[in-house]
Amino acid sequence: MTDKTFEKYKLVIDEYLVNGFNGTQAYKKFYPNCSEETAKVNFSKILTITNVADYMKEKQKDTSNKLQITLESQILELNELKDMAKIAEKYNDAINAVKEQNKLLALYEDHNKQKNPPVDTSSMTNEELIERAKATKKLES
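Given the sequence above, the corresponding structure tokens read:
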């Protein structure tokens, strides 16, 4: 890959990170003449390029550090929101909070391509959730 191509791919990744994580639209912004399907496929392909993947991880890490967002803080926040939703009997909101927690904990097959079935986290303590998240992150690294 040429430096010029890598620079363009970095722009695609930057767009992806600011547009709400829409890879197809990010790709089409810099390659406007391609079809939706081509943009979708090509965006997926560039994510497999080591330099591009490393660039995206670094950008996400920088953003997380700037905002002081950690996996632990997100899990605790979602747990609090889930409890508040249950108290207010807004069960859809509670379910959505659990779904977001599960995504962070990499419990969905679609999100982390694991072979283990989803785990019921409803009875886990905050400490157990955080430990599971940390263990999951180690496995992904």
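The radius of gyration is 18 Å. Try to locate this feature in the token string yourself.
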